[in-house]
Structures are given as structure tokens and as C-alpha cells.
Amino acid sequence: MVVAVVGLALMAFSYYRYEYEPGDNPWDNVFMYIGAADPNCEVEGLEYVRRPVRLLPLAGRTQLFTRMAKSFGSKVESSYRITFQEKVIFYSDMEDDFTPEMLEWGRLPAGGKTEVLAGFATSSRDEINVDARTLKVVGLLKKGISVFANSYLIGEGAEAEELFEPDEEAIQNACILRLPKEQQGDLETRKQLKGAFPRSQFTGYTPLIRTQPAAFFLYVAGLALLCLGGCLALFTLYCILADRIRNKWLRLPLAEIRSYKHLFITMNLIYFGAVVVFMLVSYAVPELQSCFLVGVSSQITDGSGILGIAGEAYMSKNILRAAVTTFAINFPLGSLACITLPSVIVPGAGSLIAGLRASLWGLLLAPTFDALSGMMVPHSVTLLLEGHGYVIAAFFGVLVLVYLFRKAEGPSAGTRYGRALLMNVRGNLLVIIVLAIAAVYEAIEVILVMLWAGR
Q1: pLDDT at residue number 47
Q2: Residue spans per domain, the chain
Q3: Less packed terminus of the chain by CB within 10 Å, N or C?
Q4: Quick check: 410 and 351 in contact, CB under 8 A?
Q5: Where are the strands (E) in 146-194, listed by range?
Q6: Looking at per-residue confidence, does 417 or 374 come out higher?
């Protein structure tokens, strides 16, 4: 437990030391929609500023992943492109909205000149070439002004206006909105936003700012300690309960975990080790993670598939509904159908599916971007509990294979296989308990984070 707590503390330290920015920021509640059409102006109560935006070509490696994004659907591809495409935004009244205090360095662009103000996550700090014109970067916005993270802002001037000829395909509209934090989670407001900016015509822009290397590796080290300490603490608990619980339906699977302790601990290490390894892969290739994240976000937004059902449950802010929905997905589908049943058909096969899930978790949940770092501090406990539940299911699935080749478990292969099936039934009672606790914790944790974030 001490190791687990130290790991969690290390994750929190990494976020609050390197990524968290305290204090009021006038740009905190500003976001952007980008599209070629005009917004639906019939929707009342929504104020926005519309500015011309020129989308710049995607960089080489980012371009390679557009095919993968397209495999998830055209909307996912569009969101992926908008996320990674750098942009030049025509900002005629720049001095009204920006002050020297908002700059990391430099100054605001002078009017009438080919000078731009760069966002924090842009690729160039010197100059950029757009349509055979060279634009000089004279200042860098601070990280907190994330809505322009990968954008360059240019002021008034004849040369600037020539960059935004309306008949060019790369020219679209950037609709910039400012909503109070408490309003962003309002269902009526969300309906108005969908009506004003339909997904068929507009793409919501979510800035992705890379986590600093020191923060990332410190964070992942903390997560590894949390998972290691947490798994060993739970294993110790099972060994204690194996001697104290009288009900054989729980006592026998606990005793089996103790009997095959090396196998059980090794499977936990492999599962969570895979999560950590693929988090490192995500950090090395952030475009890969972004493809998955945009796909997941699209499914939740559209309310389609399993993730859409879960998203609706969490958006209701009803903890009981969210917990029941999460458990209904995690146990019958995530554990029973994907791990236990394959293991009893092809002994031990479910462990391969569990390993695939661990790899996907690493790719999806890596704190590669600072927006994920804060959320993953409390959510790492969910990752530990749910992952541990799946490891228990995979462990009893592997025992089917062990029983078949261990003559001490029965006189014949049929008898040993029957005993393995019965042990899997008993083992799933333990899986149910762990995943139920994980579902309740996840429902409370996610909804509290949503309320805190004003969603």
C-alpha cells in the first residue's frame, strides 16, 4: 500500500508541478468550431466571433495517420485533421484581446506587416511560409491560451487579406465562443451548440499540447508504482481472506490464487507492464493516440456503440446509473464474453484478449497531452481496479490449461476440465466483486471530475 500511495503521489506531483496552471485565465472557457459553412444563426443565446482561418498542410508523419483516422469514419478523419493542422487566423483587433502579459516571449504583431503571433504548440518559432509568402513569428502565446495552441494569428494588412481569398479550398471559418464554466455542462446549451454547429458542417477544435518529457516519465513511473503496489496489496488481501472466509464459493478461488501465486503475480506484471510500455509508444507516436482518442470521442458524441451508451449514462450525472452501466459493460462483455468464454473454449485464449486490451489502454490513456494528465490522476485507480479484475478472469482462464496438464487435479482430462470450469464459475464471483467496486469508484470519480470541469 505504501508503494501504491507513493506512486499516486508521484503522479499528482508530476501534474501539479509541471502541467497545472493555477489562477484565473480569461481564455479558459474559450473554444472553437471550424467549418466552411455559416453557423445556424437561428439559435438564440449563443454569441461567437467569426474569423477567417487558413488551414496549413499536415506534416509528413501526421499525414500518414489520416488513413487510419479515415478507417474510423469521415467525421473522425475531419476531427483528426483539424486537431493537427496548423492554422493561420485573421485577427484584425488583436490588441483589444491580447496583452504583453499573455505572451511567453516577444511582442504583438505590428499592423500592416507580415508578422504573426504563434500559439504555444506551433512547430515554428522563427517564420512560416504560406502561399509563397514568408510570415515572421514575433511572439509566442502562453500555454494557457490553448484555443490558439497550434495557430498563428495575423493582424490587418493588404498582404494578410490576400491570404484569405474566400474561393480557396483551404479557407474556412473559425467560430470562437466563450461560455461560462457552469454553462458548458448544461444539456440545453449543448443542444444549442449542436444546432448552431452541426457535425456535418463543423468540427470542434480540441487543442493538444504535449506533456513535457520530465513530467511524462515521472508520471508513468508513478503509475507503474501504483499498479505494482496495488496488485501486491490486493494479492496479500486475498491470501488473508483465503483463511478467514468460510463460504467455499469465495474461499476456494482465493486459495487457488495463493496456490498459484507466481502465475497470478506474473500475469498482473505482464498486464500492467503492457499498459506502461504502450504508454511509452503513445508518447513516441502521439498521432497514433490521437486517432484512437478522436474515434472514441466521436462515438461518445454521436451516442453510438457501447461507448455512446456509457457516455449518455455519465452525462446524466446519475452515479447509480453510471455505475450500473459501467458494470454491465465491464463484466458481461469485457470479462465474461471476451476473457472467460474464449478461455474455456480454447484453454487460456482469453489472456491474449486481455493483453490486447492492456495495449489499447496504454495507447488511449497515456498522459501524452496535458489535458489527459490531470484526468488520469484520479482515473488511475479505476485503471488499477478494472485491470486487476480482468487479470483475475484471465488467471482462471489460464488455469483451464494448467488443470488439463496437471494430473494432480484429477484422474482424467475430462474430470480436470470439469473442475477447471467449476473453478472459473467460482473465480468469476471474485471478478464480479472487484469490477463492481471499480464501477462504483469510476462513476463517482468521473462525475465529480465532470462537475468540477463544468461539463
Answers
A1: 75
A2: 36-205, 211-453
A3: N
A4: no
A5: 151-154, 171-178
A6: 417
C-alpha–C-alpha distance, residues 405 and 400, integer Å: 9
pLDDT, tens digit, 9 for 90 and up, residues 240-292: 999 999 888 999 999 999 999 999 999 999 999 999 999 999 999 988 888 88
Closest of 436, 247, 248, 234 to residue 332, by C-alpha: 436
> What is the per-residue pLDDT for 258?
96
What mean pLDDT, rounded, does the chain reach?
88
The single-letter code of the amino acid at 123 is: S
The residue behind cell 463517482 is: 444
**Is the pLDDT assigned to residue 190 strictly greater than 70?**
yes
CB 137 within 8 A of CB 100: no
Q: Could you tell me the sign of the dihedral formed by the alpha carbons of 380, 381, 382, 384, in that order?
A: positive
φ, ψ at 369 (rounded to 5°) = -115, 145
Partners of 133 in the β-ladder: 130
Quote the distance between the C-alpha of residue 151 and its chain's center.
23
Q: How far apart are CA 137 and CA 139, in angstroms?
A: 6
Phi, psi angles (nearest 5°) of residue 443: -60, -45
Bridge partner residues of 32 (DSSP): 176, 205
List, in order, residues 6 or more apart from 438 with CB less than 8 Å away: 326, 330, 382, 385, 386, 389
Reduced to 3 states (helix: H, G, I; strand: E, B; else coil), residue 318 is coil
